[in-house]
Amino acid sequence: MEPGVTAARPIQSNGPVALRIPGPRLGVMTWRFALMIEPAASDDSRADFTETFTVVDPAAPALSVGELSTQRGDGIFESIGVVDGHAQEVIPHLERLAHSAELCDLPVPHRFQWQQAVARAAAECPAGESVIKLILSRGIEHGPAPTAWVTATEAADFRAARTDGIRVVTLDRGLDSGAPERAPWLLLGAKTLSYAVNMAAIREARRREADDAIFVSSDGIVLEGPTSSVILRTGDRFTTPAPGAGILHGTTQLSLFARLEELGFETAYKSIPVAELERVDAAWLVSSVRLAAPIRSIDDRPLAVDATLTDDLNAYLLSPRD
Would strands 166-172 and 212-216 be described as parallel, antiparallel, or unpaired? Predict the structure, then answer.
């Protein structure tokens, strides 16, 4: 049980499937749901995978001490935003999960099994914003493999970031832009559980009195945020770093480009030199749960926030999307 957390109380439902847990902040109630998955082979012909799911107490131990996801970060994950019980863009997330599995030499996830697991978790989500996480691990060292599970919980409150904007700093990732092609074993295009560097980057940004960071390559190319994609606006043209350079292709970025094109704007993928950040008219960090956070300064250089367009983009992202 986490520090500051007291006893859990079951939600009234068909069994003890979700828990309301008093959080570390006095008076704040949170809820959690957890589902273990017995991974099916990618060619399994079943239509119903219910028997491969086991609902577990989210406040109780569920993983072996030999689990490689916790020992080595050896696994992959996806975070899916949920709005009023509707899981957003499930298929793009599952496609990216499969891509990450391929890069990491993990078994290909069975799409329909994971779709049903997401639907099961989404059914436990109340009104408002929630987040579902999908985790596929290499499993237990010298034991059964792989291990898979799904969790659901309420999302953090990102309203201030969406409206007031965020301050970011650029941080050197320590690799040149050719590293992903030259060294594919670095897994720079996979969404792995090895997020210690990403979290360290956010802590460094806060030490510099910023809210978040943008990674840049050692040869001066804009990459991505530690947990987000970068979108830049110059005039009526919106650009984002090309995903082929070891950048995780963001599902939210893809969705927003479609929305921007509907609004009549031009969109493009390109290699973006760091110096170009000084010439953009506006910028956003976008992700599945925080959604579109306008950037109001980069390395202490003020940047205009287009509140009207940002509100439109976030209203779109909060609408039901398959």
Answer: parallel
| Ramachandran class of 187: left when φ > 0, alpha when ψ lies in -120 to 50, beta otherwise | left
Q: Which domain holds residue 75?
A: 9-154
Among candidate residues 154, 188, 213, the one where a domain is terminated: 154
Within-domain flag for 3: no
Q: Is 207 exposed, middle or buried (0-12, 13-18, 19+ CB in 10 A)?
A: exposed
Residue 115 backbone phi and psi in degrees, to 5: -60, -45
177 and 137 in one domain? Answer: no
Give whole-number Cα distances, 299 to 18, 33, 303, in Å.
43, 39, 10
> What's the structural domain count of the chain?
2
Backbone phi, then psi, for 119, in 5-degree steps? -60, -40
Same domain, 102 and 64: yes
Residue 133's DSSP bridge partners are 79, 151
Q: What is the DSSP string of 73-91?
A: --EEEEEEEEETTEE-SHH
DSSP tag of 231: E
| Phi, psi (degrees; rounded to nearest 5) at 186 | -75, -15
CATH number at residue 81: 3.30.470.10
State whether 134 and 179 are in the same domain: no
Q: Quick check: is 42 in a domain?
A: yes
Does 31 map to a domain? yes
* pLDDT tens, residue order, the chain (322 aa): 333 333 333 333 334 455 655 444 444 558 999 999 999 998 999 999 999 999 999 999 899 889 999 999 999 999 999 999 999 999 999 999 999 999 999 999 999 999 999 999 999 999 999 999 999 999 998 887 899 999 999 999 999 999 999 999 999 999 999 999 999 999 988 999 999 999 999 999 999 999 999 999 999 999 999 999 999 999 999 999 988 767 888 999 999 999 999 999 999 999 999 999 999 999 999 999 999 999 999 999 999 999 999 999 999 999 999 8
